[in-house]
Design goal:
Length: about 400
């Protein structure tokens, strides 16, 4: 009887907010009766059974009680997880190729000589699950010229694709039109003989990572941090809001702290920290930049302007200097030749900072794990072609 009364009191307390007034009154009476029964000199087991039957009549056992309990647990765990995400960690998908080869957006992967040796050995459903890949295969079947007016969107928003015609044959490849043109290199008014291989690989949907929202508040931001931030109130050199040109979230590498004076001379970023009287190579101030200047696996150093035509507003020439204002940060992409960054739209206010890249959780590539820990792939970066470096197709 003692244990019954203890459990009943606990239940009455825990369920106070969901019990009806009549149920509360009946439970209180049952508690009193159970208390009186505890004073009896000779406890009656049958009486305990009758008390349990009364409890069952007051609060009938639900047919789905176990399911409801599990749903309650899932709801609580979900609330804690979302709260943890909102306060400490945020998930983020790499949107573009500007941070390659450190972090990848949607990108093409060659089937041959790829760093991921499992790509060609697993069935496609498993490849998709582990590496977020779709097959990209095109061998021209008959001699023909690309019809530029034949381009049509195919697939859906989740798995976009492009359909086009070479000669009299139609072909379909994954990706948006710009990505397909990049990895195939197809051009107008060119004859493609039968047997020409335009794609023999996979298209991956890019890296997904956890962003640490707290660490930079405790330790401050450092040169070399891969930083996620919003583009709110950031404008390009001609006054165009960055949010209008691209997404609300960006990811770049922090190269300039408040008070730093920056120059790019001969594809080398040099920095004069606040209070210093001379310039230093960025890799001498932050060793993480050594791989940026390795010339391996797609790393290129830093150029004065993205692309082949100078379109930068800041550090556009080797003579140009820029001093980072207070509470602002200068950001560059690791894929410096094909990155929209602070050379075009200036500095990022501290209030825009979301956090630092922490952990790549999907796909399971050589970059999986702690962000920015993978060494350069030991192949020469080489020369750019079709808006990228072919060495980046190998990982």
């Amino acid at each position: 009887m003692k244990h019954f009364r203890r459990d009943l009191r606990q239940y009455r307390h825990q369920c106070d907010d969901i019990l009806l007034p009549a149920q509360k009154q009946a439970l209180d009476q049952l508690l009193d009766d159970a208390g009186s029964a505890m004073t009896d000199d000779c406890p009656d087991p049958a009486r305990l059974t009758r008390f349990r039957e009364r409890l069952a009549r007051i609060v009938p056992v639900s047919r789905f009680r176990l399911l409801r309990e599990w749903l309650d647990i899932i709801a609580v765990v979900g609330a804690v997880a979302f709260g943890f995400r909102g306060l400490f960690v945020q998930t983020f998908k790499i949107p573009t190729s500007s941070m390659q080869p450190t972090l990848y957006g949607v990108h093409y992967m060659e089937a041959e000589n790829n760093a991921n040796t499992l790509l060609t050995k697993l069935p496609m459903p498993l490849n998709g699950l582990l590496f977020s890949t779709r097959r990209a295969e095109l061998t021209v079947r008959q001699d023909g010229v690309l019809d530029p007016d034949s381009f049509r969107l195919a697939g859906n928003a989740l798995f976009p694709g492009v359909r086009f015609r070479i000669g009299s044959d139609d072909y379909t490849l994954p990706g948006d039109p710009y990505k397909v043109l990049e990895y195939t290199g197809i051009t107008d008014n060119r004859l493609y003989p039968a047997g020409t291989v335009l794609a023999h690989g996979y298209l991956s949907q890019g890296d997904h990572l956890f962003v640490d929202r707290i660490g930079h508040h405790l330790t401050g931001l450092r040169r070399g941090d891969i930083t996620v931030f919003t583009t709110e109130n950031i404008v390009t050199g001609d006054g165009t809001p960055l949010t209008r040109l691209s997404g609300f979230y960006y990811v770049k590498r922090l190269v300039g702290l408040p008070g730093d004076t920056l120059r790019i001379v001969g594809n080398q970023l040099i920095v004069r920290p606040a209070g210093d009287d001379r310039f230093h190579r960025i890799q001498d101030l932050a060793p993480v930049f050594n791989k940026i200047y390795s010339g391996q696996g797609g790393y290129q150093g830093h150029t004065n302007s993205p692309g082949d035509v100078n379109c930068a507003y800041y550090l556009a020439t080797s003579d140009a200097e820029f001093t980072v204002p207070p509470d602002q940060y200068f950001m560059l992409g690791d894929n410096t030749k094909f990155s929209s960054d602070s050379r075009i739209w200036g500095t990022v206010p501290r209030r825009n900072i979301i956090g630092r890249a922490m952990f790549v959780f999907w796909p399971f590539s050589r970059r999986w794990g702690i962000a920015d820990q993978a060494e350069p792939l030991p192949v020469p970066t080489g020369f750019s072609r079709n808006g990228t470096f072919p060495s980046m197709y190998l990982q």
